[in-house]
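All the exercises in this workshop are built on plain-text protein records. Instead of coordinates, the fold is spelled out as a row of discrete tokens. Once this layout is familiar, the rest of the handout is easier to follow. The record below serves as our worked example for the rest of this section.
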Amino acid sequence: MALNHILRFLLCLLTFKTGFNAEISVFVQTGTSVQLHIQTQELPEFVDLSWKNDKSEIIVRYTNEPKKVRLHSSYKDRVDFNDKTFSVTLKNMQKTDSGLYTARASGETENDIVTYRVSVIDAVEAPVLTVNSNWSSSDSCTVNFTCRAPELMINSSYQNNRCSPQEVTSHEIHTLILDCSEESIICNHSNPVSLKEDRINIKELCINKESGSDNHLIDSSLLGPVVGLAAVCILMLCLSVFLYFKYKKGAQEEVAECSSVYAQVEVEDQTREKTGNDRPITIYSTLGQHQKPAGPPEIDHTVYSVVYKQPNEKPSAISPDDT
């Protein structure tokens, strides 16, 4: 595609009207140089030869006798003149330098030898190639994409390792071209002075998509076993917690039973005595669980009550001495 632009540029240089005063279009990138040639090997005899612009400024004046070159003050640092070929080179071209440049030979008559229409333009911006959607399987890959540049856009699809080449232009100098190969999608943005491109490796994109699909299938096949394993783990955890609390509760009851303190009853007189009606006296004592103090262990100061058995004394008989 770049070759087509080069050929087009050369045709512009070589195609001009018959005779003198042919107008040739030349495009120059901003900030670069351009060389303007006489375009003829046979010049009429002249006294002086000059290059001037469409502002009537004489950029260069060359005098044949004596051989002398004069430069315009505003171009003094930006012009090179070749006194052998009579060509002129303009440097650091700006957009304000766009216009007509004419070579004129003066002698017995004045002849305009050649005229150039110089257009100073900027380099193009890089295009942007965007994938809108893609789908792939084991034997095919489909990609929908957009090739975009300022004021230009192409929408297309890549299928079965190919896409339809497309081309659009803007203002007859900016061109957006879309092309595909088995490995890449290529988006070119160009004008007569520059060419920039963006490309996507379609093969890599399709391979990645297929790999992603395979991974998704693998993950789906593992989903059932993973869920089952998680359920078993949760069940075992619940059972372990239940057994732990059950064991803990039994241990607490056992400790409570072992820590019971029973009251002791001390009977001073171990001899069983009978009451008047010969019935034994029964003494009951309430048993209770000894409550542990909340603080640190202390020496047991428990005081046990002592129960004495009161003897049943019979009234004594009156002795003869008392009477």
Summary: The CA atoms of residues 185 and 200 lie 5 Å apart. The mean pLDDT is 75.
